[in-house]
Amino acid sequence: MKKEFRSDCPISSALDLFGDKWSLLIIRDLVYFGERTFKDFTNAAERISTARLTDRLCKLEKLELITKSNHPTNRKVFVYDLTAKGMDLFPVIAEYIKWSNKYLNDHIAEEAKAYAAMLETDRQGALNHFMQRR
What is the mean pLDDT of the chain? Predict the structure, then answer.
């Protein structure tokens, strides 16, 4: 896959690959909510369009951040899972949760607030809790 980067900045380069909001939300859904199918992703509160979801899933698969396989009982359904490379992004998402808890506390869900509190007291334990669920 051809990779084109706007600069040699590590933040800019990473954002060039997976920095759109939909890619990060798909990763969130895989780890945090245990979503694994196309239908699962379309039911998320953010309401991603099916065309955009298809595009992002293909992009994440090409970047080797997720894998796609057939559902064990329904060959028409695909199941998505994070690779180790994709799982390495979850701590970044956890930091978004902590930041949102600090600055957007009156807006975020109670479950996210509880997870943010876990991150503050035992960051590695909180990360392991979700990373081991997949």
Answer: 89
Number of C-beta neighbours around residue 38 at 10 A: 17
Q: How many CB atoms lie within 10 A of CB 97?
A: 19
The pLDDT tens digits for 56-73 are 999 999 999 999 999 999
CA-CA-CA-CA torsion sign (47, 49, 52, 55): positive
Structure tokens at 90: 């979850």
Quick one: how far is CA 84 from the chain centroid? 13
Beta strands, E only, the chain: 66-70, 78-82
The answer to whether the beta carbons of residues 91 and 127 sit under 8 Å apart is yes
What domains can be seen in the chain, in order of their start residue? 10-83 (1.10.10.10), 89-134 (no CATH)
Residues forming a β-bridge with 67:
81
Decide if pLDDT at 114 tops 70. Answer: yes
Rounded Cα distance between 12 and 56, Å, is: 19
Please say if the pLDDT value at position 12 is more than 60. Answer: yes
